[in-house]
Amino acid sequence: MAITDHIANYGKNVGAGLLAGAQNQYAIQQNQQQNDRNAFVQDRRFNANQQRNQRQDQMQASAAQRAFGEETRRRLIEAPPEKRKGIFYQRAQEALAYPDIGHPPGYNVDEAWARSESTLPKYVDPVAQEQAQYDRGKTDEEATYQRRKAAEQTTYDRRMAEEEAKFQRRRIQDTAQKKNLTPAQKKVDEVFAKEYVDFVASGGLEDVEKQIKQLKEVEKSLKDTAKAPFYDLSKPNLTGGVMSIAPEWARSRLFPESAAAQNSVEEVVQRNLRLILGAQFTEREGVRLIARAYNVALDEAENAKRVGRLIKQIEGAARAKLKAARYYEKNGTLQGFTGKTEFTEADFLPADEPLDAKEQAELEEREQRSNVGN
Q1: Which residues of 115-145 are buried (b: 16+ CB within 10 A; e: fewer)?
Q2: Whether pLDDT at 368 is above 80
Q3: Distance CA 232, CA 226 (A)
C-alpha cells in the first residue's frame, strides 16, 4: 500500500472520529436542554399548585370567618340588649381557637364591639313578635269575615228589595182592582213604588240620616272656625281668603281640612239628594246645588249658614218623603194623599238668592270639568 493511501485512510478516520465526537456533544447538549425544560415546567406546575392551594385555603378561611361572623351577628340580634356584649366577647375568645378565623393584627375587642353595637337593629322580643303575627293573622281573618258578611248582607238586601218590589207591584194591582183607580193614578203608584223600595225597603232613609249627620259635622267645623279669633293659628283654614285663589290640587295638599269639608258636602249632594229627588236628579243639578251650598271663596260664617239651610231642606224633604211612604204602606196607594211626594232642584235652590259672579264662574268651571269627565 502506498504512503498516500495510508495518509488518506488516516484522514478519513480522524474526520469520522471528529464527526462522531461532535454528534455526541450535540446530543448531550440537547439532552441537557430537554432536562432543563422539564425541570422548568415542573417548577411552574409546582408553584401553580402551591398558589392554587393557598387561594383555596384563603377562600376556606374567608368562608369560615364569614360564617363565624354571621353566626355571631345572629346571636347578637336574637339576644336581649343586656346580654349582647357578653356574647360578643365570648365569641371573640372562641375565634382564637380556630386557626382559619383568629383575629387580624392590631385587633381590639373593645373597638370591635363599639362598631358592631352601632349596627345592631332594635331588639324584638320573640314572644311579642309571635303575638304580633298572630294578631295580624287574626285581624286579616276578621277582615275577610267582615267582607264576606258584607257581601252576603248586600246580596240579602238586594233579594229582599226585589221581593219587596214584587210585593208592591202585586199590591198596586190588587188595590187598583179594589178601588177602581184610573190609569194615571196607577202610574203614580207604580212610580212611587220604585221610590219606596229605594227610600225605605233598601235602606235609603238610613243613608239620608247618615249623610245629614255628615253635613252637621261640616257645619260645626265651619262655625267653630268662624268663631275662633284671627290670631288663633290652630284653627284650620276651610274657606275664604287664600282658599278662593288656591287651585284644587294645591288646596288638597296644603289645606286638607278645606278639601275634606268640600268633598263631604259634594258627596251628600250627589248621593243624598238622588234618594229624595229620584232618578231625574241630574249631575248638572248637583253641580248647581253644590255651588249654592258651599263656596270656598266665601268665609266660614257664610258657608256655615248655607250648609245649615241645606240641612233643613234635606230634613224637610226626607220627612215629607217618609210621610208619603207611611201613607202608602197603610193604604197601598197614594190616592187621597195630600202631602208632597216629588221634589225638584228649586226646593233646594232658593230663587231669591241668585248666583253672584264668582259663584256663576265656579258653576261653569264645575260643569266643564263634569262634561270632560263624561
Answers
A1: ebeeeeeeeeeeeeeeeeeeeeeeeeeeeee
A2: no
A3: 11
